[in-house]
Amino acid sequence: MLNKVKTALRITNNRFDEQITDLIESAKADLGIVAEIVEPTDALTREAIITYCRLHFGQPDDYDRLERSYWEQKAQLRANPKYKEADDGQV
After folding, report:
1. What global pTM score does this model have?
2. Between 17-31 and 63-79, two packed helices, what is the crossing angle to 10 degrees?
3. What percent of the chain has pLDDT over 70?
4. Does 3 score more than 90 pLDDT?
5. Could you tell me the end-to-end alpha-carbon distance of the chain, in angstroms, rounded to an integer?
6. I need a labelling partner for 57 at 20 to 30 A (CA). Which of 5, 12, 13, 42 fits?
7. How many Cα atoms are found within 13 Å in the side-chain-facing hemisphere of 82?
């Protein structure tokens, strides 16, 4: 996942790996991704994580567009039963 996010951010060095890894984990927590339900390699979750990282890394020129995109992706994940936990129905 780290390499996919770095590619999306156009980063070719390892200088920001720790910060990016923290953003990936924050995105998973925000999305409520549970490994038993869906792996972050799933296309929908992967794109939402990448969008989250692009939104929160640095000062993107297209912040508003990224924010809307992330919230839409998050809503789509929450609406899909595949991504819901069996015990409480939350993503």
Report:
1. 0.84
2. 40
3. 84
4. yes
5. 20
6. 42
7. 9
Look at residue 39 in the predicted model and tell me its pLDDT: 67
Burial class (CB in 10 A: 0-12, 13-18, 19+), 30: middle
Residues in the chain: 91
Q: Which two tokens stand for residue 60?
A: 């993107």
Question: Could you state, in order of their start, the residue ranges of all structural domains in the chain?
Answer: 2-83
Which tokens sit at 89? 């129905």
Spatial contact of 5 and 50, defined as CB atoms under 8 Å apart? yes
Kindly give, in sequence order, each residue whose CB lies less than 8 Å from that of residue 5, ignoring residues fewer than 6 positions away.
20, 23, 24, 49, 50, 53
